[in-house]
Every structure is written in C-alpha cells, then in structure tokens.
Amino acid sequence: MKAAITTKAGSPEVIEIKEVSTPQVKLGWVLIKVKAFGLNRSELFTRRGDSPGVEFPRIQGIECVGVVEEDPSNTFEKGQQVAAIMGGMGRFFDGGYAEYTLAPIEIIFPFTSSLDWGTLGAIPEMFQTVSGSLHQALEIQKGETLLIRGGTSSIGMLACQLAKGKGLTVLSTTRNSEKRQALLDNGVDHVILDDGIVKYQVRKIYPRGVDKVLELIGTRTLKDSLKCIAPKGMVCMTGILGNEWTMKEFTPMGDIPSLGRLTVYMGESNNLSKNLLQEFINDVERGTIQLRIDRMFQLDEVVKAHQYMEENKAKGKLVVKVE
Description:
- The chain is about 25% helix and about 25% strand.
- It has helices spanning about 40-50, 115-120, 125-135, 155-165, 180-185, 200-205, 220-225, 250-255, 275-285, 300-310; strands at about 1-5, 15-20, 30-40, 60, 65-70, 80-85, 100-105, 110, 145-150, 170-175, 190-195, 210-215, 230-235, 260-265, 295-300, 315-320.
- The strands form three sheets. Strands 3, 5, 6, 7, 8, 15 and 16 form a seven-stranded mixed β-sheet that branches. The protein has a six-stranded parallel β-sheet with strand order 11-10-9-12-13-14, sandwiched between helices.
- The mean pLDDT is about 95.
C-alpha cells in the first residue's frame, strides 16, 4: 500500500510517500480501507518531535474514515462505513496517513451516510473536540455568552454553530480583519479583532464579562481570556494554535479571577459515541450544520498540506482524500 511516512522529527519535508506492506490483521483490531482523513495541529507537533513517546518512522494520522476491509471478530461486515479516532492512533501505532490502517476495535465507530468521503473526513476529530469542549467541559446552557478565542479555526467555526444552535450568544476572535465577514456569515454575534489583548473589547460589550470561554489559541492568550469571564465564569483550554505548550509564569491566585474556573479538554475516543456521531453526520446531510472545509489534498500531497497547516493559512478544516 501507499503511505505517507514521517521518517524523523522535523519540517514537513521529513514526510515521504512510500510503498509499504499492508498491515496484517490481528484479533481485536480492524483493517480499514482509508477513504479520507482530516489534518490536525497535534500531528504537526508530533511531526516536529514534540509529542512524548512517539518513535519514528511513523505513519501519522489520529483519525480517518473509510470502509472495513477485514474484521476477525465479525463485529463489522466488510464494506461497513467507519471512523477511527485517537487512542494512540498515529502516535503509538500507525495511523490514517495511508491507503489502509489497522486500528483497535474500541476506537472504531460505524456510521451510514451518503456524504462524499472528503466531507466525512472532516468530521470525526473536529466533532469530538467541539462537542466535548462545549458540553462536557464548559457545560454550556441556553442564554449564556460564549467567547471563542481562535474563531476562524475549523474547531472555532463549528463551535459557533453548535453553540448558536443551543441558544448561546457568541463572541469570536480573529487576528485578521479580512476574516471578519466569514465569522459573521458563520453566525457570530460579536467579532473581536485580537491583538493579543481582548479583555477591554469584551468588557465593553459585556461589562461583567462572559459566562464561558473556549480557548483555542492556548497558553499565549490564556491569562487574557481568564480576564474576560464573569464571576463563576469558566475557561476551557482546548487548542494550542499559538504553538506553545507551556507558560513561563502562571500565578493561580491572581491569574485566575476569584470564583473563576479553568479547565482543559483533551478528548479521547471514549468521549464519543456512535449515536452522537451519526446524529451529527445526519445534521450535516440535512444542511443544519455547515462544515467549513478550507482545502482538500490527495495522499501524495501530505507534505504540501502540512506546509499549508504550518503557515496558518486555513480558514477551516484541511482534509486529505485517499483514492
């Protein structure tokens, strides 16, 4: 089979397209013929060598969609549409950047859909992250105000749609004024131009602060995001678009406002269910949810796709189709 193999830690050029043996099926695992997969920033960090415990060479890819090729347990029939997500995929065992992947049965979710594979490839990790962040971590409620820090990312765009669907008022940030209209078209109520400090703009609109903040930039803006919340408000750090994992200085009794709450969401496959996934796919089919897909690439273009991702050019999800 053909696979995009990260040969060592480094720049996008360390990924090479090679012919390798198709994985051998074993009990408890399912062989999937990959049709598409989404790109994720965590894969960028893994490629750079920033993910602990990852050994190279490695076929990356923490998610994929495709059809079952072989399942020794007979849980799934050959040809069943499935998604595979997380659980060490693409890090501790080979992942979705290939024509076939072998995944543990517990991280596989069956579904049925008439959507094209490129669209389906955008869904699993993006939906799991957004749904878990909003519902499990932030516990959003109708009538609340939500600030999305990093609103033009694929996660930010989808989070806005789901939050609006639940009756929240959404504020969303962008560093680029040219992306303002894209946010408004996506349903955002208030667009905030982000120069690194947004607390003054937020409190001009809501003097008490907002109820919830979905922090997708990460440690670079976390302190400022904490200054945007109302009493008993909550910040959930889910993303690291700012490319920094740690903070040089953080003083909990000072940086976290009195009565404020700070949490993180680091979702896994067990945060998702086949029913939730199917319901979301159905919403996409009906047009209730509009996925923001920036570009689609082919498997031979994974290096180009990683370069595009590293340059922060995308205004939505990046997907690779395997044909």
